[in-house]
Amino acid sequence: MNPQRIVVERSFDAPHTEADMMLVSGRMRPCLEAYQVTWKRTVVSADRKRVVCEYEAPDTETVRRIQHEAGAQFDRIWVGSVIE
Hints:
alpha+beta
């Protein structure tokens, strides 16, 4: 199966700091490797209360499993297409 682009949307009540992001990233790294998922990019809103992450993965369920195992908060996970 070809990998898909998976988008994860996150929102926070308080601004998300660089330290917050690094903590979650550290917990997620082994999970990404174990499931052969590739992080592509993260976009953070100017107020740092919204984050959108893009991954390359076999399906949304794999990315959802990684989020749960890493203890990463998320609102939605969906398949998308990149238009550049």
